[in-house]
Records
---
Amino acid sequence: MAGRAARLVLLAGAAALASGSQGDREPVYRDCVLRCEERNCSGGALRHFRSRQPIYMSLAGWTCHDDCKYECMWVTVDMYLQDGHRVPQFHGKWPFSRFLFFQEPASALASFLNGLASLMMLCRYRTSVPASSPMYHTCVAFAWVSLNAWFWSTVFHTRDTDLTEKMDYFCASTVILHSVYLCCVRTVGLQYPAVARAFRAFLLLLLTTHVSYLSLVHFDYGYNLAANVAFGLVNVVWWLTWCLRNHRRLPHVRKCVVVVLLLQGLSLLELLDFPPFFWVLDAHAIWHISTIPVHILFFSFLEDDSLYLLKESEAKFKLA
Ligand SMILES: [Zn+2]
């Protein structure tokens, strides 16, 4: 999830430039948008635009104004390339080739596949692990929280609006905090359930405060970045410490080590910021594609660990 943090650094940078990115500050772009809107986005021309617009585009909320910005973005990019300049960003983003109503097709597809992987692993977990396993409900809840986050990530990359952006960020923070809770239950909560309950209440309060501040007071990219990095660090340090203490006794814990290290390593991908290959594949999309096998491995660890905990609790029960 630190990858998201890196993306936020870029967004924070973009937000700091009050007037946007290089591309949308370009007079050619601004002129083009203004003229396109005058020509197409009012009166009879607007009615004509709406009658020509495919139904899936209007359902996805693409307006005449959005279409003008999209067309003028490519006019500006062509001009930059012809003059031998570097590809500029627009409104904090690289130019992406739209596919149907998908604004960032590769990231949207990769988010969908991450969600599909989470759903498949949830189904597998529920068939192979009995509900009496001590971590069963916490793990199933984690899978639902992940599924929800991937749903919003797919929506956000399909159509970037204020609301979908917030939902993507908030749901991603929820996954990190739920992973911290999962770690707390595994390391402390099984022996001291009251501690896990108190910690859950604390995390819920933390999440509520975080989301309320960002949505009701001020959507501050810098603060959001700092908060997510802090949540992520607690998550990584807590899981790794537990893994290092237990990996000799429990071989399946190595899967968890690989997941934590891979997530940290892959998040470096996000620091590479380059114009998308074929106007589709950028560093963020590659990061989303790369996390698909990591989810499968993490759920595989949760499955092994839950079955181990079940065996252990049954053995204790027999002894008692
Ligand atoms: Zn994303």
---
Amino acid sequence: MRIGPYQLGGHFTLAPMAGITDAPFRRLCRHFGAALTTSEMTTADIDLWQTAKSRRRLDLDLDAEPRVVQIAGSEPASLATAARLCVERGAQIIDINMGCPAKKVCRKAAGSALLRDPLLVEQILSSVVAAVDVPVTLKMRTGWDRERRNGVQIARIAEAAGVQALAIHGRTRACRYRGNAEYETIAQIKSAVGIPVLANGDIDSAEKSLEVLRLSSADGLMIGRAARGRPWIFRELNHYFASGEPAAPLANNDVRDIILGHLSDLYQFYGESTGVRVARKHLTWYCTGLKNADKFRSRVVRVKTASEQIRLTRTFFGAAAGDVYMAA
Ligand SMILES: Cc1cc2nc3c(=O)[nH]c(=O)nc-3n(C[C@H](O)[C@H](O)[C@H](O)COP(=O)(O)O)c2cc1C
């Protein structure tokens, strides 16, 4: 799959997830074979870029190429300005968020709320495409609600505006995260446009990934929640896609070392105090399904220093159930 000048090295990409897909997590997923990763969404309101949070979200220094920055907003001119500034800071692809149903985003008629207003979608996408000389991509849902599943219309508008790839979450905005994702609308979109399409929603195993590729005819897939606590899912998906066989499970010690490496990257990126706090949620996901996870979780979410967090992590994951990692 190709986006503008960038030939991706695989079919499986990491979905942007605010609060999760920070630079350390993106690095980890790329290490395990994610073909593309995207920053957490950044507001198009550049007056808010001075906060530590926004500054970190725009920190692209160590990102693998192509560096993708996602922006969210509702005014064509501010999105265009934000896109230009992101490119100046090193973004190689600009992704526009029209997939997020979060209230904070939708109240300002950004994110998936824009799907209700095709004219504004056209204005936004045309403005951003005209503002930058890098590829612009769009992350969207299948429509506003089940009655107005206008994904095909939006996708055609996007292609005509010069958008170079689409990622589609197989739910409407009204569905939020309820029910199961459906891939039929994604297949309709794929056959209505000539640009690459990534299918997204509820893909959590190698078998499911092949099923979604078949049902949607998409060029690639985007994996979100299933990568939490399991960044090596990209290795599993790539292996299954290439060989039709499940990848060998990771050994306990490998998992322990991957997690310790992740912690170290978090401390370096955020500093110790914030790094320890951010690491708690990742550790909670890493231990899901393991023996004595509750006990480990309740202890590790309380610790305040890196050394204590490392000590508990080393002990727990070094001794986790069996010889191989059986979680998830
Ligand atoms: C915690 C969380 C944060 C998210 N943040 C974003 C975001 O910043 N931008 C975006 O386009 N989608 C965001 N999403 C949506 C995901 O990219 C993805 O479309 C959705 O989770 C469905 O995929 P999945 O079933 O593989 O998780 C977020 C999802 C979650 C769970």
